[in-house]
Write a structure and sequence with these properties.
The structure holds two protein chains of two kinds. Chain A contains 14 helices and two strands. In chain A, strands 1-2 form a two-stranded antiparallel ribbon. Chain A is about 70% helix and about 0% strand. Chain A has one domain. Chain A starts with a helix and ends in a 9-residue tail after the last helix. By secondary structure, chain A is mostly helical. By secondary structure, chain B is of the alpha/beta class. Chain B has two domains: about 160 residues, P-loop containing nucleotide triphosphate hydrolases (Rossmann fold, 3-Layer(aba) Sandwich), CATH 3.40.50; about 70 residues, no CATH class. Chain B contains ten helices and ten strands. The radius of gyration of chain B is 18 Å and the shape is globular. Chain B starts with a strand and ends with a helix. Classes of the chains: A mainly alpha, B alpha/beta.
Chain lengths: ~300, ~240
């Protein structure tokens, strides 16, 4: 059977592959590029945070390390694609320090990820000071055209969507869902909770690290205060919760709303954009605790949003 | 199959929950563990299943020392258990929850084999309409049935049921007694059951272990246990025991 999720991924890839051919102009193309990037962050956060219920507030550390490492590698004349891939792997390697956190449960994990984000930022800034190199890395001008980059990001977005689709049918997501519901019961069925949470963490950090590299290629420089900003830890949370956690379509809807809202808020609210974003999140969470996708599902009278398929 | 508890002691701070417990469990038997609240029944289950690590003693399963192994390791070796609080582990239908056991248990399967395995178990346990009921709105009785089926789906050599009949009405208890017997017969499982409903224990178990304050005070056939002075004392107080004795 050709199922709806696979169809969705194909249609998604096709629509966004055709989009730049419509000569939409630079501003819109850049806005959509950012949307695709945000979607990578949201859907990868959803693996561990949504399905597995392990809330990470520190994805800024993976995003920052991945981006910063990619920046350094690109400057040292490695190819862009290889640099970004290596950046992702380095971000994933960081997770080995976090596995002990899984012996702690739920909220302790969230707190630890938050501190990791802050620690990584301090580390990179301090390293730059002590080694007397400028902390900000500038990529060569005109390194990559926005069109090439767009298709690069679209490829990663599509691969991420495909990966989560495959995961949904695998033991991994089922194990993570069971762990979220009740870790003790999950263990009693033979589910190795630490193993599956580690797999989730590894995938999330790897993909987030790659997104960091893509972002650096997009903006043309890597600065610790920007790359490790706490926003990168909060954005994925925002998008996934707004769209609907532990659902496949939720992060897609969340990322779209987020991309539009952020553009709009930055344009019209200026310095108050982050504050407004926070207010927006509070309103959405209070009025739709299960995310927008569940409102849609209610109207349809069906709940096809979960892994039950 | 063989399960031997050697001199198990489990303490929580100054409290000794289980003290020098010794017993071995015979293959294919249904053993009941009874005792007043706080006598250490559930703690014992938790020690055997790897949820707690005992301070002293050993749990030996199939000639292998499994003391202090992780819960999931013990489960995959073939010791399944249910919890007193029962929660569905995934959204979706009852049978999908049962399939989780087959997916990750002793002979962990693929998604496909897990579903057909779950279907077979649900049929044996007479799920009927419950099969496709959403796990969000199950009654207590149904939830317990799903939890037991899920544990059975892990293909256990030993199935430990922790107060599965609490909160059920007499008709449901009677059905559970029948069901547990048929699980033993169909699935060739050894069953250890912790239970407060004594009538169920008496009709179900071939052997009964009585705990009081963490110590084993009696062990034997159900009809011997009900006449045991020490047991009567624990349950009804000293006066009645001496009147009878």
């Amino acid at each position: 059977m050709i199922d709806r999720t696979a169809l969705l991924v194909l249609v998604f890839a096709f629509v966004f592959a055709v989009f730049p051919l419509l000569n939409v102009g630079d501003y819109l193309l850049r806005a959509v590029t950012l949307f695709l990037l945000y979607l990578i962050l949201a859907q990868s956060w959803n693996i561990l945070g949504g399905y597995g219920g392990q809330i990470s507030l520190g994805n800024s550390s993976f995003f920052g390390i991945g981006g910063y490492a990619a920046g350094l590698l690109i400057v040292s004349r490695l190819s862009i694609a290889v640099s970004i891939l290596l950046g992702g792997l380095i971000a994933a390697a960081l997770t080995f320090f976090m596995i002990p956190a899984f012996r702690l449960r739920a909220s302790y994990f969230a707190i630890m990820t938050l501190f990791l984000g802050a620690a990584m930022q301090a580390l990179v800034t301090q390293l730059a000071v002590t080694t007397d190199t400028p902390a900000t890395i500038y990529l060569p001008l005109g390194l990559i055209s926005i069109n090439t980059l767009y298709y690069g990001i679209l490829t990663v977005t599509t691969l991420t969507l495909a990966l989560v689709m495959i995961l949904q049918r695998s033991k991994i997501i089922h194990a993570l869902c069971a762990i979220k519901a009740d870790e003790d019961s999950a263990e009693s069925l033979g589910i190795n909770a630490v193993l599956y949470k580690t797999i989730g963490l590894f995938l999330m950090s790897f993909i987030t690290g790659i997104a960091g590299g893509l972002y650096v290629a997009f903006i043309g420089f890597a600065d610790p205060s920007d790359m490790f900003a706490i926003e990168w830890g909060v954005y994925p949370l925002f998008m996934t919760i707004v769209g609907g956690t532990a659902t496949y379509v939720g992060p897609i809807i969340g990322a779209a709303i987020f991309a539009i809202a952020l553009q709009w808020l930055v344009t019209f609210m200026g310095t108050f954009s982050l504050l407004s974003l926070a207010v927006l999140l509070v309103i959405i969470v209070l009025s739709m605790p299960n995310g927008i996708i569940n409102i849609v599902a209610k109207f349809k009278g069906a709940t096809d949003q979960d892994t039950s398929g | 199959m063989s399960l031997v508890c050697e001199n198990i002691t489990k303490r929580f701070g100054g409290l000794t929950a289980v003290s020098h417990f010794e017993s071995s469990f015979e293959a294919g038997a249904i053993t009941g563990i009874i005792g007043p609240n706080g006598s250490g029944k559930s703690v014992l289950i938790n020690v055997i299943s790897g949820y707690y690590k005992p301070e002293e003693g050993k749990v030996v399963f199939d000639q292998k020392d499994i003391t202090g192994s992780n819960s999931h390791t013990v489960a995959r070796l073939g010791i399944a258990r249910t919890f007193q609080h029962m929660r569905p582990l995934m959204k979706g239908t009852a049978i999908q929850n049962v399939a989780l056991g087959a997916l990750f248990g002793r002979e962990s399967g693929t998604m496909k084999t897990a579903m057909s395995e779950a279907y077979q178990i649900c049929k044996e346990m007479e799920f009927g309409d419950l099969l496709s009921k959403s796990s969000d709105n199950l009654t207590t009785y149904e939830r317990k049935k799903v939890e037991i089926a899920r544990a059975v789906a892990t293909k256990p050599k030993i199935l430990m049921l922790d107060e599965v009949m609490a909160g059920l009405n007499p008709a449901e208890v009677e059905y559970f007694v029948k069901m547990i017997k048929s699980i033993r017969d169909n699935r060739k499982a050894t069953i250890i059951i912790v239970e407060h409903i004594l009538s169920a224990v008496m009709s179900l178990c071939e052997r009964v272990i009585v705990l009081s304050n963490g110590r084993k005070i009696a062990e034997g056939l159900p009809r011997e246990i009900v006449r045991d002075v020490g047991v009567i004392e624990v349950y009804l107080g000293r006066g009645l025991a001496s009147a009878k004795g």
